[in-house]
Amino acid sequence: MTQIFGNFIEKPLTKEKLILEFLSDSISVQDFWRNNDYAANFIADFLTAFISKNGATSDSQRQAEAKSAASYIANELLENAVKYSHQASQIPIQIKLYLDKGKILFFIKNSLSHLRSANLQGVIYQLSNSNHEELYFNQLEKSIDDEYSFKSGLGFLSMINDYSAKVAWKFETVADKPAIMIVTTMVEFQM
Fold it and tell me: Model pTM greater than 0.85?
């Protein structure tokens, strides 16, 4: 069974892409947290290779803005994937970056338990049916009281509010692992 939330793009038409894949249990969550910014910055640096650079100030500024946005979004997506991935499933986490006609597309795929899948779908419902700015401030206030809340959606709200990102999700069942779901989160933003 497959469920789609938002305007999910199955196959971008561009050939300009970067794909990274790793098992979530190949490094401890604590070690990953200490090094996550390296992975996010690597992805952002890779992106800048595709952004034309002719020396004009506007191109340099555009490149810096795209790099900053890509680093932030990659960091958020990787943190969520590692934090919520079902490690025992031995299903790798995969992140893909596409550059398509001035748009940047991120796809991150990871495994989830059905409980975490239901929690994420609750966050998606809240994101889909709320004013994003108002929800962002409400969630910020709630997170002060409960720093361990895993249902806040603050990362997604930051992407939407700060980078005008469009977010979509695809949930799939795993035929040979009925207790596991695969979620692919797609984030699209303009350069």
Answer: yes
